[in-house]
Design goal:
alpha/beta, 15% strand, 8-stranded mixed sheet, single chain
């Protein structure tokens, strides 16, 4: 796998895209009028969606740091999204500069920004692969060129699996990606849920579906199934704002409807 793909990306601006909508929630600039319109519909239904997106990014930072502090030095990040500071490699290489990271996404706009994901510390390495989560064999084969599968690897799938409905075999895809990883490897997950407000979140899911993006807002039990057989880091499964909150992530009031967890392979 090369450190960056070279073919020019083709970006479809005729329909909204989940990664660009997420970028809009975060206040980014890599989005288009069709994305604004869909994102504004979501925000009308759930006004806290920008806060939810920020909380998810803060969870990624806390979880990646926690895994790096366990001694994991290799990271496979699937569903990377549009680069947003800090990126995962910046977080983990601040703990251990020798860390190696493989980013994976199927979105052409992420490919356009791939160089922003390749600013590794000199002691480590980052690489980018354009692939879909539904291609686990391709992902694993390419990741082996960068990562040593005899040593623990952190598989990060943050805010991804709610875009992978059951008809795509979501649970099997996670297993296909996790099974080749050795003991001590970790799975980092966050996932939208309708448990707290089914009517609102089913309406939000419909906005995405009308734009052509499949969505599956799963229950706590369905989320837990992705983590079966793993040892969960404290505090186990929690709402994203409640997973080891730090001073920057403290929040008053109701928890945001995004489950989060980190599991370690025994």
């Amino acid at each position: 796998m090369s450190d960056a793909e070279t073919q020019p990306p083709v970006i479809d601006t005729s329909k909204p895209h989940a990664a660009r909508m997420y970028d809009w929630y975060l206040g980014g600039k890599d989005n288009y009028p069709v994305d604004w319109a869909a994102a504004e519909q979501v925000q009308a239904l759930f006004p806290q969606v920008p806060e939810l997106a920020r909380a998810n990014r803060q969870f990624m930072v806390r979880a990646a740091r926690a895994v790096a502090e366990l001694g994991v030095r290799q990271f496979l990040d699937i569903g990377t999204g549009i680069p947003t500071d800090p990126n995962l490699h910046q977080v983990v290489q601040a703990v251990a500069p020798e860390s190696r990271i493989v980013y994976v996404d199927n979105d052409p706009i992420v490919l356009r920004h791939a160089q922003a994901l390749l600013t590794s510390a000199p002691e480590g390495r980052t690489a980018y692969l354009q692939a879909d989560v539904r291609e686990p064999e391709k992902i694993i084969e390419a990741a082996r060129e960068i990562l040593d599968f005899d040593e623990p690897v952190a598989l990060s799938m943050v805010a991804l699996l709610h875009l992978v409905p059951d008809e795509y075999g979501a649970l099997g895809l996670v297993r296909a990606l996790l099974d080749p990883l050795p003991a001590g490897s970790c799975l980092v997950l966050s996932h939208a849920t309708a448990d707290t407000d089914p009517d609102t979140w089913n309406a939000v899911a419909d906005v995405y579906r009308r734009g052509g993006t499949p969505v599956a807002v799963r229950s706590r039990a369905e989320f837990a199934a992705f983590l079966a057989g793993l040892d969960l880091l404290d505090p186990g499964i929690a709402f994203v704002s409640d997973w080891r909150p730090d001073a920057a992530g403290q929040r008053q009031g109701a928890s945001l409807p995004l489950y989060a967890a980190v599991g370690r392979k025994p």
